[in-house]
Design brief:
The protein is of the alpha+beta class and about 725 residues long. It has 4 domains: about 325 residues, Pnp Oxidase, Chain A, CATH 2.30.110; about 110 residues, Beta Barrel (Elongation Factor Tu (Ef-tu), domain 3), CATH 2.40.30; about 150 residues, 3-Layer(aba) Sandwich (Rossmann fold), CATH 3.40.50; about 100 residues, Roll (Ubiquitin-like (UB roll)), CATH 3.10.20.30. A hairpin with a 2-residue loop joins strand 12 and strand 13. The protein starts with 8 loop residues before the first helix and ends with a strand.
Length: about 725
């Protein structure tokens, strides 16, 4: 092990921010070494190129490419690397290397999508020789690497006598048209960073890393700044940790068609939350660069690259065009759009799935029809719809969970037929309309997806998905999303899918889930039937007789302590959905096991459902993506109660219930307007625009949070 930690303060801070600190520390102690294992040494020795990160006299990082014939890198022992490379005239690295200089090395085998990294110090250097002493060495996952192969040497043998000065070099302070072209079509770039903290600490030094995305994933903002989306990685945060402590970075872009090299050294800023970040699919954060200096060296590389094969990891990532489109849609988010039913599947005796695609619109070009693009949703969100029932003057509004993971092609709504249960509870208008009247080709009006019951993006903890009855719909969406992550990103994140149904006839998505989990070693399925049919097979159709409850979880989830009792209080993220009795049972069982509130995520079906039983304030929602302050004073005027709202307090309705108040409400999602409450002082924010119309001076407290703190809005006072 490298004592005391292979990570410096900046890396540790980001690991803590994303709640992976302990896990990554343990992993780092095992995989980050002060030497190169034999596999890495052999890997470097077969490469015809490596990337390097170096630091100039002003402390600015630069990223470079070193090349030679395979074998130009040698390792005499596990602590050293010797590079006999061909210098590129004008490369900043030439002036940055001397004895004791920090340098980062990235070995990348494009065709195999393999990469290994090390940080080192320069032991000695000559005209074309670089001898390095290893400080840290570790491997990297293959995510986002585009497969390429060197097809031929571009320069003939006798061309080697052509002086290197013939490679035209230009320097600039503003991005030229050619520089913008290279950045704009890039599907990868290389980023050098640097941190110098306490002396002789192994986590100090230079680093160089790879970033990849769809062509155009790096956006040119203007003549001196660019921005890129940073996707999920290995959570080491080597690059971003350096930037956090030392906001400088060197970028290298390669034009694989011409061999041009574009070097930039910049000031960097990490953007953890923004409207654009939230709209960019799979982006964990954005990183913005302000140019300090740039260099373009034309036809610098002496070889030709073959065709590109894009990484499968890119399938789940967005683009800047999609961001612009999404934001435009959000700005008009309460506009209904037409969708066409393109497929209908019977999932069980009561549940039917309706596949919706955007309806085609005339685009004004000689009557040509084209479909609107579908807005990307997050697994677990719902789709608000409006339907006109036969024989009814007014249309009705409903929300249905989208039961598929985002795919850019369709929304799947899986709707249970709701029969009459008594004279006071007639059959469901909307659900029966879908089952009795909606056919393939039918048109449905819907708003954009919304909802906060979604997977935690940054969590790497094991996931437990629990459902009963039609509560399976958001769980299937989440399961599909987790399966996509597993296929594209790899990893060992465990998933349990636990569902309760009466029997096989009422069990929706049974075969679909079996297929998903059958090819997924880290996933476990368990179905509990409360009233199995004689033909239902134990061990095949279902796995236990009874209901899904905390006792079942104790049997299924691995114990965390030595006496074998259930110990899932600190290890799992729980998501659950279903009828009120099921929800209450699961929630109470988890709280009895001391599961933290921020590990419990749930959504009710039906009006007026809440897990709060008293003013104890157990139920809390997170004010995700809101520009709110913490804390803020809230005054319930009629009750003369003043309380401090915090991020963990949830909505204003949650906060009121925590004080023992019982304001009227129904949907808890901003649909019906029952909870409208007068604002006396201050302002509110919404994570998603409510569907119900809001009268001026009122707030829908079921989905409202306090607004941003300011001199004019120092507290919130509502008539309650």
């Amino acid at each position: 092990k490298i004592a005391p930690s292979p990570f410096h303060k900046g890396e540790q801070e980001l690991q803590a921010l994303y709640d992976v600190r302990e896990r990554i520390e343990d992993m780092g102690q095992r995989v980050i070494r002060d030497y190169m294992p034999l596999e890495h040494r052999e890997f470097y020795e077969q490469l015809p190129y490596v990337f390097a990160g170096s630091i100039d006299d002003s402390g600015r990082p630069w990223a470079s490419l070193l090349f030679g014939q395979p074998g130009f890198i040698q390792s005499a022992d596990k602590y050293s690397l010797n590079i006999n490379f061909s210098r590129i005239n004008g490369d900043p690295l030439n002036s940055n290397i001397s004895k004791g200089s920090a340098i980062g090395i990235l070995g990348l085998q494009f065709e195999a999508r393999r990469r290994n990294r090390l940080s080192a110090s320069v032991e000695s250097s000559g005209n074309e020789v670089l001898n390095l002493d290893v400080v840290q060495s570790f491997g990297n996952c293959p995510q986002y690497i585009q497969a390429r192969q060197i097809e031929a040497r571009q320069i003939e043998p006798d061309d080697k006598e052509v002086p290197e000065e013939s490679h035209r070099k230009s320097s600039f302070k503003k991005l030229s048209t050619r520089a913008k072209q290279i950045i704009g079509k890039a599907d990868s770039f290389y980023i050098a960073t640097y941190h110098a903290g306490e002396k002789d600490t192994p986590s100090n030094g230079a680093d160089v890393s790879h970033r990849g995305g769809k062509p155009g994933f790096v956006r040119v903002d203007n003549d001196s700044s660019i921005t890129f989306p940073d996707f999920t990685g290995n959570f080491h945060f080597n690059t971003l940790g350096n930037i956090l402590l030392n906001p400088l970075a060197g970028l290298l872009f390669i034009d694989f068609d011409t061999g041009d090299l574009l070097y930039l050294t910049c000031h960097a800023e990490i953007i953890h939350e923004s409207e654009e970040k939230r709209a960019f699919e799979s982006a964990e954060r954005l990183v913005h660069f302000e140019l300090d200096e740039g260099i373009l060296i034309e036809r610098a590389l002496p070889f030709k690259w073959g065709s590109v094969k894009y990484s499968p990891s890119l399938d789940g990532t967005g683009s800047w065009d999609e961001v612009a489109e999404t934001l435009a849609v959000r700005r008009s988010t309460n506009i209904y759009r037409n969708y066409k039913v393109v497929r209908i599947d019977q999932e069980s005796d009561e549940i039917r799935s309706f596949y919706l695609q955007p309806d085609k619109l005339e685009n004004g070009n000689a009557g040509e029809m084209q479909a609107e693009s579908i807005q990307c949703h997050r697994a677990g969100q719902f789709l608000p719809i409006e339907i006109k029932l036969p024989g009814h003057d007014a249309s009705i509004k409903r929300t249905y969970t989208i039961s598929n993971a985002p795919n850019g092609e369709f929304f799947r709504l899986s709707i249970k037929r709701e029969p009459a249960t008594s004279a006071e509870h007639p059959p469901g208008l909307s659900s029966n309309y879908f089952h009795d009247h909606v056919k393939e080709g039918s048109k449905i009006c819907a708003l954009s997806p919304r909802g906060q019951f979604v997977l935690e993006q940054n969590s790497t903890r094991p996931v437990v998905l629990l459902s009963a009855g039609v509560g399976i719909t958001p769980m299937v969406s989440m399961l599909e999303a987790l399966a996509q992550q597993n296929m594209t990103c790899g990893g060992e994140r465990r998933v349990w899918f636990i569902h309760g149904a009466r029997n096989s006839q009422s069990h929706a998505f049974n075969e679909h889930i079996k297929t998903l989990i059958g090819a997924w070693p880290e996933a476990t399925e368990h179905n509990a039937y409360s009233a199995p049919l004689k033909t239902d097979r134990l061990g095949s159709d279902y796995h236990s007789h009874g209901r899904v409850n905390a006792d079942l979880l104790k049997l299924l989830l691995p114990a965390d302590d030595q006496d074998g009792s259930c110990g899932f209080d600190s290890d799992y993220d729980f998501y659950f959905c279903g009828p009120p009795a099921f929800m209450t049972s699961i929630y109470d069982g988890l709280k009895q096991q001391n599961v933290a509130d921020n590990r419990i995520h749930y959504e009710f079906f039906g009006p007026g459902a809440s897990l709060l039983k008293s003013p104890s304030g157990e139920r809390k929602r997170s004010a995700v993506g809101l520009d709110v302050q913490n804390p803020l004073s809230v005054h319930f005027a009629k009750s003369d109660i003043q309380v401090v709202w915090e991020l963990s307090s949830g909505t204003l309705l949650d906060l009121a219930e925590q004080q023992g108040l019982t304001p009227p409400y129904s949907c808890r999602s901003g649909v019906c307007g029952t909870c409208a409450t007068k604002l006396i002082e201050g302002d509110v924010s919404y994570a998603d625009p409510p569907l119900a119309e809001i009268q001026d001076g009122y707030a829908l407290i079921c989905c409202a949070y306090p607004g941003k703190l300011s001199k004019k809005n120092s507290k919130l006072k509502i008539e309650l």
